[in-house]
């Protein structure tokens, strides 16, 4: 009988170890440090004569080139350069991950010709990109250029552009978004997250001043729709004033940052994920399940149809532009007015789980976007956007920085897959219990 108890305890221990793998060691953390910084952005030109020609014709105006987005793949960091003003010769470019120069010249990506202004087959206005677990780059091309000028050019439509980076050919597949989803003159495709499930989805923030919302794009059939909710996606007056290092700016900007949480099982046993978002001019962070956004019928029901499903998680000490989730469910975000980078473990209540991980009024002036590499490092773009918008960029000062820190984690893109629960047929659980009892009785008989 004692032997039976011994074997039973072993069986229980093995079962527990199979369902609860040992926790990985806590990641080693380090302070953020500057790895790249620029007074002005310059490029790898085909020749010195080309550079002079661009300068002389105002196709290159150094003070008008702003770094906004950042992403990682292979040996490169990909940087987005939105064409808000004239004189931005390329809107997507790369620099090496391995630092060889503190202010490297940017290499247009995929090429100079693929960044030609006025060619709707080329990239026009890239605000942000994401690279999924299959090596596909998802590019948000607004089409419209000169958004901070008196007469923006609306020749080209807002589009999703896909590039398979694995092939090395860098061929672009362009999918213009439909007129019932975007408006060529007013839409502003700001940021996106990619969900590599069920045909690949992208959830995109459109912070249009006229019609803000979350655009859902399904790659499998290239279909898209927009879901709106004025209560959670519009800017609020009390958060529209930004104060950074003595500079004040009024920016009533709608839904902006977006992040995607790890997979989880619902009460019904289905797999789902949480989409987090916030307007730029807001102190609140909101959440909604991805399965809700995938319900295309909500797009035709108008404002308020999403509201019953949106959760207001609570407030932040300041406004947030970009944010990024890691593979374990930790959210990284900036707090603009506090010159701060913060994190939140999403398994904790938002009200008590926020933590400051970096604060510096000199080096952290307007946190924009984040990315992770494949070695456990996080990178963040700091771009002093408030000076750019107020036309106060000084080429005698550092205006753009990339900071780096080790977290020991990767992007949310690599969050573990979860298997849905298959419903148990009636009587199956009872049969399993009877089988286990018979097995124990057999052991007892053998050991008697």
Secondary structure blueprint with pairings:
Layout: H1 2-19, E1 33-38, H2 48-56, E2 70-73, E3 76-80, E4 92-96, E5 107-108, E6 126-131, E7 136-141, E8 159-164, E9 172-176, E10 189-195, E11 201-206, E12 213-218, E13 223-227, H3 230-233, E14 241-244, E15 247-250, E16 255-260, E17 264-265, E18 271-272, E19 274-279, E20 284-289, H4 290-293, E21 311-315, E22 323-325, E23 330-335, E24 340-345, H5 350-353, E25 354-359, E26 367-372, E27 377-382, H6 385-389, E28 400-406, H7 428-447
Antiparallel strand pairs: 1-28, 2-3, 3-4, 4-5, 6-7, 7-8, 8-9, 10-11, 11-12, 12-13, 14-15, 16-19, 17-18, 19-20, 20-21, 22-23, 23-24, 24-25, 26-27, 27-28
Structure write-up:
One of its GO terms (cellular component) is extracellular region. It comes from Parnassius mnemosyne. It is found in: Secreted. Belongs to the major royal jelly protein family. It is built from 7 helices and 28 strands. The longest helix has 20 residues, at 428-447. It has a single domain (28-420), classed as 6 Propeller (Neuraminidase), CATH 2.120.10. By secondary structure, it is α+β, with helices and mostly antiparallel strands. It is globular and about 70 Å long. The strands form 8 sheets. It has a 4-stranded antiparallel sheet, with no helix packed on it. It has helices at residues 2-19, 48-56, 230-233, 290-293, 350-353, 385-389, 428-447, and strands at 33-38, 70-73, 76-80, 92-96, 107-108, 126-131, 136-141, 159-164, 172-176, 189-195, 201-206, 213-218, 223-227, 241-244, 247-250, 255-260, 264-265, 271-272, 274-279, 284-289, 311-315, 323-325, 330-335, 340-345, 354-359, 367-372, 377-382, 400-406.
